[in-house]
Amino acid sequence: MNKTNTAKNKSARVNIEWPTSHFTIEDVQNKYPDAVNITLRFRVKKAEEAKEIVLIGKIKPAIGRPRKVYTTANPSKEVREAARLAGVISVESDNSTVSVAEVKATKKAAQNTDSTKTVVVENVVANQTSS
């Protein structure tokens, strides 16, 4: 773990080396116990935005929120397969589908809506000319 002191706030800055396999934020916290929790979460967010690491899935515990699982950018098939075998639910397979009802309109219903629109337009035009 490399620490460098900054002149601005005299705090130690931890240079994070991302694991080569899949990992969670808790794994990074265990690797760097001296680092502040929120700082590590912020670094993970920034690294994800910079495309240094990518979200590959999540782990759903029995109780609590799902934990996000990351890996370095451009993960190999071996890394993805190891994550799947470890119980990681892939982001691609997590897409939810919603069943959509099919609605069919009859010609009679379509004709009624057209005539209603015509009447409303005629009333608006008649009101404008009489004013």
Report on the structure:
The structure is a single chain. By secondary structure, the protein is α+β, with helices and mostly antiparallel strands. It has one domain (3-94): Arc Repressor Mutant, subunit A. The protein has four helices and five strands; from the N terminus they run ββααββαβα. The strands form two sheets. The chain has a three-stranded antiparallel β-sheet with strand order 4-3-5, sandwiched between helices. It has a two-stranded antiparallel sheet with strand order 1-2. It is elongated, with a radius of gyration of 29 Å. The protein starts with a strand and ends with a helix. The model is unreliable at 115-127 (pLDDT under 50).
In short:
The protein is of the alpha+beta class and 131 residues long. The chain is built from four helices and five strands.
Helix fraction, binned, reads: 40-55%
What would you call the structural class? alpha+beta
Strand content: 15-25%
Distance between the termini: 82 Å
What's the CATH architecture? Orthogonal Bundle
Shape, principal axes of CA atoms: elongated
Please give the domain count. 1
Total helices: the number is 4
| Helix-strand string | EEHHEEHEH
CATH class: Mainly Alpha
The overall pLDDT average reads 75
Low-confidence stretches: 115-127
Total strands: the figure is 5
Determine the CATH topology: Arc Repressor Mutant, subunit A
What secondary-structure arrangement, pairings included, does this model have?
Blueprint: E1 3-5, E2 12-14, H1 25-31, H2 37-49, E3 53-59, E4 67-72, H3 77-85, E5 89-90, H4 107-130
Antiparallel strand pairs: 1-2, 3-4, 3-5
